[in-house]
Amino acid sequence: MSELPKGMSLKKFNDLPTTRAILYYLDSDEEGENKIEYEVGQSVSVYASKEGRKGVDPNDLWYAIIECIRVDKRARASEHFWVKIRWYWRADFEEPIFKKASQSDSRLLCMGRQELLESDLSIWAEAKVLAGENNPQLL
Fold first, then answer.
1. How many distinct structural domains can be found in the chain?
2. What CA–CA distance (Å, rounded) separates 91 from 102?
3. Are 10 and 4 in contact (CB under 8 A)?
4. How far apart are CA 137 and CA 127, in angstroms?
5. Per the domain annotation, does 65 fall within a domain?
6. CATH assignment of the domain containing 26
7. Is residue 82 in some structural domain?
């Protein structure tokens, strides 16, 4: 999930322009226009990517905050929008990195089931982790 665009170095990726927000128009059978706006500083939920996953398991829902949005305007770009997200930890998070962190940070041992704690782990991901296969546009 945190790979750079194909054929692009880290330096070129860091030179891509940024934007404060993107807008997704959602495909819907209902009348009217459904849209979702994502902006820097917004907390979001992301379904964890799992190979061979069929359907959606609520336990696979992860939470993060958007730190930055980059725009790849190349005509041949496979994904035009990239988001830098910083993860929140949950008390029932099963990832090994959380287990290791929880051993060294006593705050994680006292967390309730509905609480989130902002982590220091950030990744770059394709913006489609936010809204699936819907098409985003700049605001």
1. 1
2. 9
3. yes
4. 11
5. yes
6. 2.30.30
7. yes
Burial of 126 (0-12, 13-18, 19+ CB in 10 A): middle
pTM: 0.75
Confidence of residue 19 (pLDDT cuts 50, 70, 90): very high
Long-range contacts of range 41-46, CB-CB < 8 Å, 24 or more positions apart?
41/65, 41/66, 42/66, 43/88, 44/85, 44/130, 46/85, 46/125, 46/129, 46/130
Contacts 24+ apart (CB under 8 A), 7-12: 8/72
For residue 5, being part of any structural domain is answered with: no
Please report whether residue 3 resides in a domain: no
Segments forming the whole domain that contains residue 38: 10-138
pLDDT in tens, 105-125: 677 677 777 788 788 888 888
Strand partners for 44: 64
DSSP 18-53: EESEEEEEEP-SSSS-EEEEEETT-EEEEEPP-TT-
CA atoms of 35 and 32, how far apart (whole Å): 10
Exposed/middle/buried for 138, CB within 10 Å: 0-12, 13-18, 19+? middle
